[in-house]
Design a protein that fits this description.
With 468 residues, the protein is mostly helical. The chain is built from 18 helices and 5 strands. It has 3 domains: 126 residues, Rossmann fold (3-Layer(aba) Sandwich); 113 residues, Serine Threonine Protein Phosphatase 5, Tetratricopeptide repeat (Alpha Horseshoe), CATH 1.25.40; 172 residues, DNA Cyclobutane Dipyrimidine Photolyase, subunit A, domain 3, CATH 1.10.579. It is globular, with a radius of gyration of 23 Å.
Length: 468
């Protein structure tokens, strides 16, 4: 039976895997391969937290393949050269993969596809990561969407989920291929092992994704609309890293959750999943946005040049604003942060501290296990006010009011800022406002914020007024 290379990338699963299914349907023996080529991803090579997750996800994928009689063949180097060498060494007649949509990767893949076809190979690419690929939806004028709500209305009108596909029961094995290396040789695991605290909270791989989806559907979906903004409660799905690494297909998420809760709660969650779709739509049509403002007016904005001390205080949760510090410490300890808190810490950086959003985007890129170029870019430009469908710049999140509303007893703050753990709940949101006699209850925490929330808001609005 002729063989086909099945090139795994950010689609580290066996269920609902269009490229794998296409190879099997064509009667070809699939050879599962992974090529490590971060140098081909432009200025956004995966960060250390992403690498740590990827290592474990690849281990899980290899184990799932071995249970079925196959295994993952791992390589490193230039992707085109590796693919050409592999087709020559194995006699493979075809190469199949699922598409990615980051600008550098998309351009690379187009060149690879062209060269392999010139070599006489069959090349097929498939949608393995989105409900709607970025070019599928457009305005009535034929333009890309710049506002989420009409985008999502168009998506719902075109709703047509693929059929769910089980993982193959068995897969043929293949001998060792020249040039393959052990997974450990990729050096994806950090040294020293600063990620050790992540893995009591996460299970990378397809089984972990299935468990997270089932847990969310059984325990949290019923309360999602009212509880999704509460970092003190475990209501969010925590599916974002599993979706980013393709350990579960978004259409499986949609289909299984449709049976797990009320239509109303399902619709609320689907709308949140829709923001991921919108992010990829925007990135595809405006590929410059990871590095430059979508709204060029902000090119002249009066950003503050950050000192290392100022930036590090934000990065490591020493700003003196408890909800901000709790979020940044959660990120450092777990590789993840609650979405509401992501908005709060981003607003504090870009508006209260008036530091350019790229500084925050780069830090998130390095420290999030779910770091996704499309979502990271959209989120930071949205909060900064410089992106598509952005929050107006004059919308500055008040971190104290946000904490009192969404963490009313300060339980989230106490969890991640232990200096405030023995403080009465009402003092946790703004400890600098407490009476002098109560200062003795707070040990080791900054006496006041590095920037005053009220006056820094006024300064930001003045800077914006000059821009207008």
């Amino acid at each position: 039976m002729p063989a086909a290379l099945v090139w795994f990338r950010n689609d580290l699963r066996l269920r609902d895997h269009p490229a794998l299914q296409a190879a099997l349907k064509a009667g070809l023996t699939p050879i599962p391969i992974y090529i490590h080529a971060p140098h081909e991803e432009g200025g956004w090579a995966p960060g250390p937290a992403s690498d740590a997750w990827r290592h474990r996800a690849l281990v899980a994928l290899d184990a799932d393949l071995r249970q079925r009689g196959s295994r993952l063949h791992v390589f490193a180097g230039d992707s085109l050269a590796v693919l050409q060498a592999l087709t020559a060494a194995t006699g493979a007649a075809a190469v199949f993969w699922n598409r990615r949509h980051e600008p550098s990767v998309d351009a690379r893949d187009a060149g690879i596809r062209r060269e392999l076809r010139r070599d006489g190979l069959r090349v097929e690419t498939h949608n393995g990561s989105l409900l709607f690929e970025p070019w599928q939806l457009e305005t009535r004028a034929g333009d890309p969407f710049r506002v989420f709500t009409p985008f999502w209305k168009a998506a719902l009108s075109a709703w047509n989920l693929p059929h769910l596909q089980p993982a193959p029961d068995t897969l043929p094995g293949f001998d060792a291929v020249p040039g393959e290396i052990p997974l450990d040789a990729l050096g994806l695991q950090p040294l020293p092992r600063w990620d050790a605290g992540f893995w009591s909270r996460w299970m990378p791989g397809e089984r972990g994704a299935a468990l997270a989806l089932r847990t969310f559907g059984d325990e949290s979906l019923h309360d999602y609309r009212d509880g999704r903004d509460r970092p003190d409660r475990s209501v969010t799905s925590r599916l974002s890293p599993h979706l980013h690494f393709g350990e579960i297909a978004p259409w499986r998420v949609a289909a299984e959750l449709a049976d797990a809760g009320s239509p109303e709660q399902w619709a609320v969650y689907m709308r949140e999943l829709g923001w991921r779709e919108f992010a990829h739509h925007v990135l595809h049509h405006f590929p410059h946005t990871p590095d430059t403002n979508f709204n060029p007016r902000f090119d002249d904005f009066d950003w503050v040049e950050p000192t290392p001390a100022l930036l590090n205080a934000w990065r490591h949760g020493r700003t003196g604003v408890p909800i901000v510090d709790a979020g940044m410490r959660e990120l450092w300890a777990t590789g993840w942060m609650h979405n509401r808190v992501r908005m709060i810490v981003a607003s504090f950086l870009t508006k209260n501290m008036r530091i350019h959003w790229r500084n925050g985007a780069c830090w998130f890129w390095d420290t999030l296990v779910d770091a996704d170029l499309a979502s990271n870019t959209l989120g930071w430009q949205w909060v900064a006010g410089s992106g598509v469908d952005a929050a107006p710049y004059f919308r500055v999140f008040n971190p104290v009011l946000q904490a009192r509303k969404f963490d009313p007893r300060g339980e989230y703050i106490a969890r991640w800022v232990p200096e405030l753990g023995s403080t009465p709940a009402q003092l946790r949101h703004a400890p600098w406002e407490c009476a002098p006699d109560d200062r003795s209850l707070i040990s080791g925490y900054p006496a006041k914020p590095i920037v005053d929330p009220a006056s820094s808001r006024r300064d930001a609005l003045e800077a914006f007024a000059k821009l207008k």
